[in-house]
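User: Predict the structure for this protein chain, please.
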Amino acid sequence: MSRSARRTTVVVSICLAVAGLLTGCAQSGHPMAGEMDVRTLDVGGSAVDRFHYDTSANGHGDVLEGIRMAAAIAPSMKIDQSLDIGRGVSVHTQIADLVKHDGMPGVAEPILEKRGFIVSFATSGSDRPDPKDTGPADPNANSVSIVLMRFPSADNAKLAAREIEDADFAVALQQNVKLTIAEYPDAMAHYRPGINNIGVVMARKEFVLDIFASRPSADQRDLLSLAKRTLDADVPTIDAFQETPTDKLDTLQPDPDNLLSRVLVDKRDAGRAPDPDNFVVWHPNWLLDNSDDQSPQQALLDKTGTDAFGYADDNEIYRVRDAAAGTDLMNGFTNLLGTTYSGDGAVDKVPGTQCGHWADLSSKKPYRCYVGYRRYMAVVYATDLATAKRKAAAQYALLANSL
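Assistant: Here is the predicted structure, written as structure tokens:
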């Protein structure tokens, strides 16, 4: 192989410390029978009335498709249970960013341009934490990095896959060795004897799947086994994923189910553009791709029926099965944080809330409150407990006014 080990941006949802204080317009309220009147809550001037974002893609359909593609790649623990440390995700529409951040070889750039590359989704998993949480994966780890790239047609994807493999192989023509995976005749693989990683490129539908897998030793059969298990996990999910026709990309919506409109934000902007890092609705796979312990996280998502996750201005929202599941989700999250987290009780007069803080208060936003309301569970963050509780009251009022 000619590529260096890959690294993706790591963002752990339940460990975020985020943006500043919220401002906005006054609250309104239409409580249902048996519910409190949210107009009595101190929301600190935050905007908590019903709100909707612009439903159009506004030229960002490629980004929205890349976000959707999280559903097309299985979390790494589905490849092997030992690969339970998610190393993050990224979405790129610029080829240079794909090469710079996700480890695609530089020789692929002109090929991606020529074949009409649209967007990529990348993720990575390992059985060991990254050294000091930065840089490439531990060289002695079992790890798999995956880049899924979208093209305008199946023919373009096939051409791109073949050309990327040929160009990458030719970088070290005398050292690289071609390999085959009998169960996947379309998969093109190669490795360099004595080097403990393998690369696989395969076209599937309108996608190119690029795999870079590493093992502690450079055993060819061992590397092929890991590559095959990666294909076993990801080919069915790609096949099940319904890609958006190229001419329909701009029909995608940033907030189709009004999930983000129920998240407390610093300042409302109805025409806000989708942003994979700060204004986005993700498939639940994202939570696993960013978890440092995927198995209990998966069990918690299954138990609560969590089917969507979103955040805006780094405050979060989860859609779950019902109100009881929301309580289970907040309890599960705080349990997973363990001794690094201390509870600070509920918010006065606001039902379904829990607050707490990191044991180490040096982080930017160490305080947070969990807020449950019907099928939703939200999380707000702050620099101090009083602000966190005021934001939690505002978040509860927003949910009540939105439903």
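The CA atoms of residues 87 and 124 lie 5 Å apart.
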